[in-house]
Amino acid sequence: MVDEEVDPSDEISLARALHKTQTDLPEELTLKTAATLIACGINPDKSTLFVQSNVAAHAEMMWFLSTLTPLSWLNKMIQFKEKKDKQDKFSSLSLYSYPVLMAADILLYQADLVPVGEDQTQHLELARDISGRYNRLFG
Fold it and tell me: CA nearest 102: which of 49, 51, 61, 42?
C-alpha cells in the first residue's frame, strides 16, 4: 500500500535492465520503460530516471550480497520454483539470484517504499533478511 502523503514524483525510478533478458534492443527497451514511467505519473523534473545497467554499483552490490546469502534462503523462493517448473531446461542462475539483485536495488538506494506485486513479497522479506545478516556481521 502506498502512503498517500508521499509524493511519488520525488522518488528514484530506474529501468531494470539487469533484471531480465530482453528481446528488444536495449535502447528501445529503455525508451519504452521511460515512457511508461512518465505515463504513470513520474515527473522527470522532480525524479531521477536512470538505466540500472549503466550504474556498476548494482552488479557490485548484488555480488557482495550474494556472498552473504545462504543458498538455503534462495531455495525457499516460491517464485523461482514456479518459474523453473514452467521453463525447466531454460532456467538460469539469473532467475535463481534475481531476489538478491532486487535486494541490492533496495539497499543501494535505501528505499522506504518498494512497489511490487504480491508475488514478490517473499523477495522483500529476503532483502530484510540479507540486510539483517549484513548488520549482524558488520554493523
Answer: 61
Q: Does one domain contain both 68 and 101?
A: yes
pLDDT tens string 88-106: 677 778 888 989 999 999 9
What's the length of the chain? 139
Total number of domains constituting the chain: 2
- The region that residue 54 occupies, defined by phi over 0 for left and psi between -120 and 50 for alpha, beta otherwise, is alpha
In this predicted model, what pLDDT tens digit does every residue of 3-31 receive, in sequence order? 344 454 455 555 555 555 544 557 777 88
The alpha helices in the chain, defined as continuous H runs, are 26-39, 56-68, 71-75, 78-86, 93-108, 121-138
Range of the domain at 22: 1-54
The CA angle 105-67-72, to the nearest 5 degrees, is: 95
Q: Are residues 71 and 133 in the same domain?
A: yes
One domain, residues 46 and 72: no
Same domain, 124 and 70: yes
